[in-house]
Structures are given as C-alpha cells and as structure tokens.
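Case study: beta-mannosidase.
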Amino acid sequence: MKILLNEDWQMTWEPLYRQASDFVLVRNKQDNWFHTNLPCDVHMPLIEQGVIAEPLVADQCFASEWTEKRSWWFKKEFQITEEQLSSERIVITFEALDVEADIWLNDKHLDHHRSAFYPFSCDIKENAQVGTNQLIVRVTSGLELVPEQELAMVHATNVIVENDHVGQRSDYRRAMVRKPQYVYGWDWGPRVATCGITGNVTIDFINRFQIRDVYVTTTAITEGKTAQLSFRVELENVHPFQTMVTDLELEVLFGHNQVAILQTEQYLRSGLNYVTLQLEVPNAKLWWPNGMGEQPLYSVRLSAESKSHRVNYPSFSFGIRTLRLNMDKLHQGEDERAFAFEINGVTVFSKGANWIPADSIYARVTDEQYDTLIREAKEANFNMLRIWGGGLYERDIFYEKCDEYGILIWHDFMFACAKYPDHLAWFREETEREMDYQTRRLRNHCSLALWCGNNENHWGFDEWWNDTEAPEFYGGAHCYNEIAPRIVERNCPVIPYWNSSPYGGEHPNGSLSGDRHHWHDCTMHAEMEKRITPEEYDKVTAKFVSEYGYIGPCRKSSIEAYHNGQPLDRTSKVWQLHNNTFEKDTVLAGINKHYLDSQELEIDDYLLYAGLCQGLMLGYSLESLRSKPFCSGALFWMYNDCWGEVGWTIIDYYLKRKISYYFVKRAFEPVKLIIRQEQGVIRLIAINETDETIKETLEYGRSSFDGVEKAADTLEVSLAPYSRKIVFEWMMNQADTTESFYYAKPLSNAGMKPAILRTHPFRQLRILESQLTLSNIRQEENAIYFTVASEAYAHAVHFGLADHVRLSDEYFDLLPGEQRDVTVWISATEGLVPSEIVPRAITVK
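Here is what the predicted structure looks like once written out:
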C-alpha cells in the first residue's frame, strides 16, 4: 500500500543562520507560513502570494535573488492508522529535494540529504505513530555550504558568462552542489537558484515481501519476428531470518490482449533475491524511431502471492527493439570511425536537437507542457533529443512521451562545463548513488539510446584547462571514466556508454571519430562572415554533430509577454537581458548579408528577417549534414527555452513555433531531396528513411526565377528502404546565377518536396513579385485545408496568422508553377475562418 503526501504543505523562510539545530524554534513559529502543494520550488508560492514578481519577465530575476540567501522550511501533518502502523516496514520517500535538506518526523531528525538527483528514502516505522504525524523539512539552495578549501581545485575552471547587460551568469561554486547547474545562469538563461521539495513524497507500507524492480530487455528478434525477452526481477523478503515461497505471474499485453504469460514458483531467502525470466512474443511489433516506422508499446504486469498476501508491481510500458552504437572503421582511412545508432539492425541518421529544462523554475513544468514539446519535436521530424548535462534528469512523463512519439534519447549525466571535485570521497559517493538510481529508473524506456558522461568536460581537459592552478587535476574524470561505465554496464548493459560530448579520437572535439560540437568554425568564429554563411557547413567532416546553432528571435507576442508591458526597444536593458550573450551582433549581420540593410529596421521587419536568417542557417546546415555519407547525426543547439529570449531555439518558452521551426521540419523530412554544389559539380542526393521502396521520376535542372527560361531533364530513381545516395551529378552552369537557381522535383506525389539550390544570398537574387493564389479551401472542425500556388518563384510563403497557430508548413519557397497543400490546425475556441488566411511572399528589393 502506498499513500501520496503532495497536498496541503506549509512553507516559510528564515535566515541562512537558522540551522538544523534551530528546528524547534521554527516548528513553533506561528505566522508567515504559506500554503503550497508539491512539487514545489520556493519561488512558486512566493509568486502566487505576491511576495515576489514573476522572475522570468522583464528584469525581475534580479529582485528574487534574495531567495538563495535564506533557509526554507516546509511542514505537513498526515494521518496513519493502527493497521498501517502494524506494517513490517514503513518507508517514506522524497523523490527530489533541491538541494541541502534535513528531514524530521515527529521531532526526530531522520537524516541530511545533499542531492537533487536521487531520492531520499528512510524506514520510519520506529518514529511513526497512530493518528497525526508531522513532517518538517529544511532545505537551502546549497552554495552556502561550499568550503573554500574544497572549492580551490575547481574554482578557476567553471565556465562563467559575463557582460554589461546580464551581469555575471553561473557561479564558481556550482560544481560543488549536486543539482541542476543551469539555475545559476547560462548564456541562454537567468540566475534563478531553485530550491524546494521538487518531486513527490510517498509512504509505502510493506508486509512480508515486495517486488522492488523489473528490468526487461529484448535479447533477440528472429527472422519470423518472434521476440525473445528477458526479465530481471528483484524481490525482497523483508523477514530477517525466514525463507518464503511466492507464486510469480508475469504477463505481457498489447493493448488489452495478452500475448505472453509465465507463472512460476520462487523460493525466497531473507533480503534481496534476483530472478531471471524468459518469454517469447510471437509476431512481435517492433518499435522504431519517428519516421522509420511505428512505435507500438507493450505493457507488463507482474504480481507475486504468498499465503494470501498479494503484491502487484506497477504496470509499465516498453518497446521491443534492439540497439547498437556502430563505431566500426570507415573505408576512408584507418583513423576514421563511424558513430551511428542502429535500431533493429538498421542505421539511423539521428535528427534532432539539444534539450534543456523547460523552465528556469523546473518544478512547475506541467505534463501538458512536456507533451506539447515532445509532440512538436515529432511534428518537426525529430528522432532524437540530447538531454544536456547542465540540466536535470526529467520526470517520468518526459521519457514516456519519448517512447510514445519515437524520440530517441541521448542522455548526459548531469555534469557540464566544469571540473568536478571527484578527489573528495563524499562527491564520489553522491555521484555513484545518483548514477545507480537514474540508470535503474530509466532503463526500461525503449527511447533511451545512450548514456554520456558529461557535456564538454573532456574537451575542457584537452583545450581549456591546461593553464589553471591545478593543470594535472582532471576533476570529474574518475566519475566519467570509471564510475559511470561500471554502473551502466551493471544496470543497463544494452545501453551504450560514451564518456563525454564531444568525445572521440586523439582530441575530444575532432572530426575523425565520435561526436563533435561544431561551434568555432561557424557560429562562434572570430570572423563574422563565417558565422552567417550557410555554405560553411558544406565543409563539415564530422561523423556526428551533437551541437552547433544559430540565434534567432521569438514571435512578437512572446517578446511582448516577457517585456511585461515595457516597449520593445532593441537597445533597452530588458531586450539585452533577454538577448543571448553569444549573439554579438550576429543577427543583424545575417540580415545585412541575406536580405537588406538592418539599420533602423522596424521591430516587425527585424523579427521577420532575423527569423528567416535563423531558418536559413539551420535548414541549410541540417541538409548539408544529412547529405554526407559519413555523417550519421545532426543535433543542433538547442530545441527549447527555459525563459523568453532571442536565442538558439526553434520553439520558445511560451511553446510557440519560431519561424525557424518550419525550416528544420523540412530539413528533417524522412523522404528528402537535397542539392549541393562542390567545385563546379551539382550533386543531387535522395534520402528514404521509410520502410518502403520509393520509385519516382524526378525533373532536375536550372530555371529562371520567373520560370520562363529552363534547362531541365528527367531521371528515374528507385530508393531502397532506409537509404540515402547520390542519384545524379551534373556540371554547374556558368551563367549569371543571380537570375536563376538549381532544382529537382518529383513529377508524381511521393511525399517529396522539391530541392532548391541558390548560389547567392537572397538580397543579390532577382526575384520579382509573384501572384499567390489559394484554392481547394476546406474547413473542418479542427483544421482548415487549402492549396497555395505561385506563377513565379516565391520566397518564404507565409499566411499572416496569429503567432500561436500551427501549420503543416510555412515560410517555404515555391517553384514557378508549383502548388503546395497546407493544413492549419485550429481549436474550437480560436474561431479562425479561411478569409483570414492571406498568402504573402518576400520580395528582395
């Protein structure tokens, strides 16, 4: 039996000097208690009660920094019956405490806990009582306990961001506390130091025995699609000296239909027992990443019974699939190796982005927000998200949605951009507990594809930290090189482990093997022209690009929301505070290069052209990486925001699609044509990531923008399932290409969109105004369908709808004479009518 203690807590604050020894004083405090429910970050009730303003709008984050200089106290009363108290064991669990916490029950100090990354759990039978029980928790944000002598070894290596507009972001002490590192500020987020009881609190009443854990793996899939499954069951006989016989029943279901069952008798020793069970599922439905097949999920039911005492393990879902990380040698040379995920024996091109926590105050992210974000990733044709190591291990709902929507997870352990104090015994112990818990918790998720030791720390060992006070101290290396691989192999051996990101080869951020963070050749290059030229990505030779990016703005309504009534002035303090610290005038330079002079731009024009530039840079670069036969992954930085800003993402803090979202969605389409040129040769690449052969007649060639002059030919292609290849090459025309473009398009409807190659920036092209028309307009309850067509080349076709409206495609280019079907999804409350859809295109003047 389990009870949930999330409701009706009280919270107050005291000075930091109110220590655990002051427990009685705070317990007896009569006033200044605030009602709250869990999960609770201390900012949440303070905002609700008007004590602080919302810290994520305007410049209000500075006004709430006092919260990290207080101790926070929670209390709750709950009832225990005589029957419950008679249980052999009564275990209380705090799922997440952020971060330095002391816990009392009925005036008895239970323990101190110092990590937000694994639960606090304790048997409270001796301290519980029939009737009313009282819990009290003291928690702080943690930095106040960092001793100078321990900090000395890592002080100079923590990555700190600082400029005139944002002040200092991050904190030199953050590596000493086991909690989300981003909350002290990063280039893309403010300092909002989280603190609180940020997960569920439960009490388990245990009698006789319990099923502690079940681990399911797919050991083999036969040619006849029979899946062989292995179940590792952990049971505990709680009696200290008696053996016990239990009857186990294991069921596998698909929907409501039972597909396999196993019943067995087990003889349990006192304490822990481990049982391995084997089952076969005939005609297994395989789980595939998004775009490569379906995501069928089976469910597991496991129960144990002994002498009329029955225990049911919580039912859970899993997908049948095999997983491999291919790091074999490539044909190009002895030093080059692949870095490619294989699902069910098929190589996956990993398409996606880096995930950060969805709110600076992460405890208030709702299940609905998680669902929206991961569903939007699916809609954008993602098949992978990388959980970045400066954030957190997400709630269960995140992983469940990734299973459901076919999104593979590259999962960093929570270490980022710093040396960590693994020379200290307590830190190593905390790290081991954290890794052990999280690998066990997440190992049944079919979406989990990789455990990775950290973000950029091996790169730092190689390039950044060789001139510090302790150059030979590789702080954290013991955690990533010894503790993590040992625990991953023990707890989830079918999940690959990778020491860091980037990592591989003689230098961790090289291109011969492993993964690469492709920053300093492009977006962070000293030369502005390198940052804003998409063709620079044609030069990439990396085997897997796991970070790179380009900055762009949110939609206007989102910017207005975080300006909180203040004028939208790009020189203002609020604008600059919410402007990514690495922007460095790159956005305006991109507008200048690709569209028009950016001086004195009105805000609407700035948002339009800056959004188009971000879309151009991301869309072109992703296509370039997909076109390279040796590259097996493209994860850009980053997918989502923790507050509103002009930044890296394609979906903003308010869950609105940025203009660039649609460019990424097109770049990631499962069936795709791409055109590139190299040394005067035009190359046409075709990609088919589906499980069906595609046969198509393609028209390819060169056309003027008005469509009057065209040199074209046709080509028959056959694309095998899960394939990409160069289907044709031809010589580049020497004519003035400011008046023309290269293209390829399908002549029938095979799910392909045309491929376009322009060889000059848009502002140099002679694109005239084109007449856009709508036809085949049809309205249904939740959608409006229509076809848009253009007589001549039309650039960035869009429809003038509200920022929150979702379309199947937008900001796309149309070839002369091309038609494209578009869907607008609407809710019953929006009241959108077809007459509001007005097609527009960008004319370069």
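For the exam, be able to explain this: The CA atoms of residues 357 and 646 lie 17 Å apart.
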